[in-house]
Design brief:
Distance between the termini: 33 Å
CATH class: Alpha Beta
Helix content: 40-55%
Structural class: alpha/beta
Number of helices: 9
Number of domains: 1
Order of helices and strands: EHEHEHHEHEEHEEEHEEHEH
Number of strands: 12
Largest sheet: 6 strands, parallel
Shape: globular
CATH architecture: 3-Layer(aba) Sandwich
Strand order of the largest sheet: 2-1-3-4-5-10
């Protein structure tokens, strides 16, 4: 199967490329981080059109996004909103033109109308449904990361625990999240890609571990692993406002997560 991965340097995209290659799949990468001309904000790119025309499925993962600290700082800025709008307008137009099967990577934050990022993802979901694509809604995917500006909470905590001996939390840690190990997310995407033609495109496919964990629990696991010190902040979460959107379990007909939070953190801990 020929996969085109848009956003192949991102948190999910980088892991997906390696996962697909390890499974013997054919993969074409596309990301501005690798080549400047691979800019989805630009309306016309004949090479991208060729890639879309010749692939079997498109993984639309490209988005200007990062972890909570990145969103808190950037999601209401003009550049953040317009960059993502351009990415979506241009990409969806090509997908419509070539009538290509595609998976749109949404987020559980699409349910949060107060979040600019969430509203953009919600718009992407509506367009995807209109074009007959597949919406996959991710819950806090974690794995090895190289960009400290866009890194997520588990990566940040591991780095602080291993290199500083102290985890300085951005919040009081009482907010709850659902997390998913990157390899599990990649497995879900491959399964959905393989079964694409038979899937009900009107359904929501929630890709998560289906378990709620407090942010403080991550720090506790790392404290046990490394005997680090944990310092909680005297502030509540201001990005997701501790919203707890329940995932749709429909995807369990085809896929279920394999990696527990503790197992995933231990695997990732050994990579840093």
């Amino acid at each position: 199967m020929k996969h085109l991965v848009l956003g192949s340097s991102g948190q999910i995209g980088a892991h997906l490329v390696k996962y697909l290659q390890d499974k013997g799949e054919q993969v074409t990468e596309y990301d501005i981080e690798y080549k400047e001309w691979q800019d989805l904000r630009e309306a016309y790119n004949p090479t991208l059109e060729s890639y879309i025309d010749t692939c079997d499925i498109v993984h639309f993962l490209a988005f200007d996004v990062g972890g909570a600290k990145y969103l808190e700082k950037n999601q209401n800025k003009h550049s953040f909103i317009t960059n993502n709008m351009r990415i979506m307008v241009n990409t969806f137009e090509l997908l419509k033109t070539y009538n290509k099967p595609f998976i749109f990577a949404s987020s559980q934050m699409a349910e949060m109308g107060y979040s600019s990022y969430g509203m953009l993802k919600a718009l992407g979901e509506k367009i995807t449904h209109d074009l007959g694509g597949l919406v996959v809604k991710f819950w806090n995917v974690y794995g090895y990361e190289t960009d400290p500006q866009k890194s997520h909470v588990i990566t940040d905590f591991i780095k602080m625990a291993k290199h500083d001996g102290v985890i300085k939390m951005r919040t009081d840690g009482t907010e709850s999240r659902q997390f998913l190990y990157a390899d599990d997310a990649c497995e879900a995407l491959l399964i959905l890609a393989k079964k694409y033609k038979k899937l009900n495109k009107t359904k929501e496919y929630s890709v998560t571990n289906f378990e709620w964990n407090k942010i403080s629990e991550i720090a506790i696991i790392l404290d046990i692993l490394s005997s680090c010190k944990v310092i909680a902040a005297d502030r509540k979460d201001e990005t997701q406002l501790n919203a707890m959107n329940e995932p749709n379990s429909y995807i369990k007909k085809y896929w279920q997560p394999k990696t527990s939070l503790k197992e995933g953190i231990m695997k990732l801990y050994n990579l840093y």
